[in-house]
Sequence to fold (194 residues):
Amino acid sequence: MSGFARWWTETAAAVSDVLGLGWLLLILVVLATAIALLWSHWSRLRRPQLRFRRRRPTAEPETTVEPLLDDAEPDALPDLPAATFVSRADRFAAQGQWAEAVRERLRAVVRLLVDRKVIEHHPGWTVTELASAAGRNAPATDQPLAAAGTVFSDIWYGEKAANEDDDTTMKRLAAEVDRAVSGGRVPASRRGGS
Fold:
């Protein structure tokens, strides 16, 4: 018998005399498990890895609002100026992303109506609900807003393929709404859409 084998046999016999065979087996299983875990994770333990959060690449300085808009529901109205929505719509249109351009143009129109106090923003309301309220509060906006809501809904909920004509239509309807509300304010008794 080799030296190690003899030592192992004598050590195991001495420990089993003191602890009993059951405890010896339990200790051996725990020791074998610890060695197996150490062996399987050895490369990670030798070289600890530092984890850094990856930054999103930024193409333009104004993209800091992008995560807020990208995480929003299609029919939501994030709390941003109308000019931001128009700018995004123009960028989407330049890239041929017509559905996104239509969505941003409708958001811009509704934000304009909120800013001009035609309606009050109700955070739980969708842009189509807000547009309907505006049509009731400012009757001159009713027809263009209804048409804009139809274009938006056909694309985003009816799954119609959007195209450049849809974006052009939304620009025209946005201009009509702007003209309709630019002349004066809506009486306080008509605000809110409720």
